[in-house]
Amino acid sequence: MPRLSRRLRAILASGLRPLLLTAFVLAGFVTYSDAATPVQQPSPVRLGVMKGPETEVAEVVKTVAAGKGLTVELVTYTDYSQPNAALARGEIDANAFQHRPFLEAEMAAKGYDLVSIGYTMVQPMGIYSRTYKQLRDLPDGARIAIPEDLSNGGRALRLLAERAMIGLAPGAKLTPTPKDVMINTRKFQFVPLPADQVAGAIDLVDAAAINGNYARAAGLDPRRDTIAVENRRSNPYGNILVVRRADQDRLEIHTLLEAFQSPEVAAFLNTHFEGAFLPAW
User: Where are the bilayer-spanning segments (predicted)?
Assistant: First the structure.
């Protein structure tokens, strides 16, 4: 311990000694407290995704998140009914596989308390035809194949309505059915099929409304082969990052969203999927 100077010993011997000792103690306390305060590390996040291309995208997200100090553990599924159930049970922290209409239908049917915190990517639905090069070239009475499920069939009808080919009932919202087609001056005939079979029927109809993933699997390019295609931004069918309501303000969750909406992920989507998957933000 260093020796005190003669001047400091004299000061300590005076009436200032209690004040100086208090200052020394406080200074030591502040220094100790600053040094001892731990830096809180983000908790790892378990992210649920579907096997296939979405897992490829999630691997890029995982790498970007690691650069931000966040560890992401991927949990993959093969059944669309699984990720929301797992999230509601607390088995994962977030999932990224669905669009808002699907989420709302799941919550209404199963009582999940889940929320969306932002867009991830979109698989734009397109109208394809082997015979016609433009949507307006479709003949009166054209047969148009659409997915038979409520969500994707509704997308097809909304896309046609947005291009002024048909008119929908005002209350149809995001999930119209052929019964909601109120204006059909061209007398189009809608042929409902399982979503994964629409692409295979393209040679049997005048046009077909095909989801981006099925189009890519069938060798179709949404950038070149469509006669109409959905917008990627502000698309209600864009995939979303979903969490439990109680977790929506967690720092880790927002870091995960930043990783999804990063330039690295956008570049990967634009270069690897030929327009079948696009950034939705």
Answer: none
Same domain, 184 and 269: no
Residue 164 to residue 181: CA distance in whole angstroms: 12
CB 244 within 8 A of CB 88: yes
Do 93 and 159 lie in one domain? The reply is no
What is the DSSP code string of 33-75? HHHHPPPPPPPPEEEEEESSHHHHHHHHHHHHHHHTT--EEEE
Please state, in angstroms and rounded to a whole number, the distance separating the CA atoms of residues 209 and 213: 12
3-state secondary structure 87-144: HHHCCCCEEEEEEHHHHHHHHHHHCCCEEEEEECEECCCEEECCCCCCHHHCCCCCEE
Count of structural domains within the chain: 2
Residue 196 Cα distances to 42, 147, 159, 215, 241, angstroms: 40, 8, 19, 9, 24
Which tokens is 14 given? 């005076």
Taking only the tens place, the pLDDT of each residue in 214-267 is 998 899 998 899 999 999 888 989 999 999 999 999 999 999 999 999 999 999
Q: How many CB atoms lie within 10 A of CB 194?
A: 12
The CATH number of residue 133's host domain is: 3.40.190.10
The two three-digit tokens of residue 148, written as one number: 């038979």
The whole model's pTM is what? 0.74
- Tally Cβ neighbours within 10 Å of residue 262: 20
Same domain, 117 and 133: no
Which residues form the domain of 188?
Answer: 126-229
